[in-house]
User: Fold this.
Amino acid sequence: MSRDEPLPRILGTRTVYEGWARYLVAEVQLPDGTRIGREVEDHGSAVAVLPYDPERRVALLVRQFRTPPCFVDGTASVLEAPAGLRDEDDPETCARREAFEEAGLRLPVLEPAGRVWSLPGLSTERMDLFLAPYRAADREGAGGGLAEEHESVEVVEVALAELAALAERGELADMKTLCLVQTLRLRHPELFAEPSRMSSGER
Assistant:
């Protein structure tokens, strides 16, 4: 589509459900004048962060029940990077809050890894992604999520080499986590090298 061609336009929306998220039907006018309806799930922006320990070569993830995967095929839990909705704060503040609530981890440094649409065909969710180096001493809380939100989050430390193997086998099922693991592999490939292959200068 060239810049001179007319663009699709949203003429209006109507809300069909409002709860934790809003569900809208948008009336869209296409460049040829045709009008169509499109559903929109609207719950706002989010963040996800992959904490990794460069010395011990592990990442801190969470495992939790997710209703949609269970509905689709009975999946009992999903291995994920800590994540959450932004509410009114900035992405960095939100990422640090989610890391502490879910994993009990204080994050001194955040490495931006992009801002992406999670599901552009349906959802308004745009997610800020971060990598975050940490040390064992940065684990100051128990994690586990918020009881009042009925979260039951298991904190899991996974070797980076194992995460790479899961990605290679197509077994890292959560998209945001897969994106973050692959980004970490691109930016810091030395963290995934076999220890026996490292020279003393790389340790």
Remarks:
- Confidence is low (pLDDT under 50) at residues 197-203.
- The two ends are 51 Å apart (CA to CA).
- The helical segments are 67-73, 91-103, 160-168, 175-187.
